[in-house]
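Sequence design from tokenized structure. All designs in this work follow the same two-part layout: the structure record, then the generated sequence. An example of the structure record is given first.
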């Protein structure tokens, strides 16, 4: 079972608040912004949200699932435990390792990229195991940043329609319309 064993805020929301204030000629404040301000900034995707960063560790994550997260490259970094025998001391040649082997992975990402990853990895068309890994991380993140997690939705909710070539059907449900309405709230 995929686990998140560590999740930390690297920076605070006050960093984004003060960057936003700078852009309109206001001085810095020594406080955290309101949840409503955070929600508005996240929905607008203004550049200061890229200053809000988190880091975490996944354990027992299948090697092939780590490959899905490696595809994300803007606003994040990934560090995956190597399978190289010269580094690990393993007696198994690298070419004989299996995709399903469990591994460890550290990742860092800013708020904008966390939302972007969510659009792809929360989609019902994404693999079940990758959705599970991402959902597990978001459950931990919700404990320290529930506003950000409230804006982490699949692409269909973000756009208001399903752009997939083979739609799963979720966009045609009452739950979808409720999810869109909830996503857009700022209070």
């Amino acid at each position: 079972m995929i686990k998140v064993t560590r999740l930390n805020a690297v920076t605070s929301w006050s960093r984004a608040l003060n960057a936003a204030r700078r852009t309109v000629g206001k001085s810095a404040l020594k406080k955290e912004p309101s949840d409503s301000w955070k929600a508005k900034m996240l929905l607008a995707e203004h550049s200061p949200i890229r200053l809000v960063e988190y880091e975490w560790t996944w354990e027992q994550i299948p090697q092939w699932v780590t490959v899905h997260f490696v595809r994300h490259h803007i606003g994040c970094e990934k560090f995956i435990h190597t399978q190289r025998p010269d580094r690990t001391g393993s007696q198994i040649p690298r070419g004989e390792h299996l995709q399903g082997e469990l591994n460890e992975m550290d990742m860092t990402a800013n708020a904008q990229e966390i939302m972007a990853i969510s659009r792809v990895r929360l989609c019902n068309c994404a693999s079940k195991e990758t959705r599970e890994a991402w959902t597990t991380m978001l459950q931990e993140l919700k404990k320290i940043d529930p506003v950000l997690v409230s804006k982490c939705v699949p692409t269909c909710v973000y756009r208001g329609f399903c752009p997939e070539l083979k739609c799963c059907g979720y966009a045609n449900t009452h739950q979808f319309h409720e999810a869109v309405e909830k996503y857009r709230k700022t209070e």
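The mean pLDDT is 95. We note this feature because it recurs in several other targets discussed in the main text.
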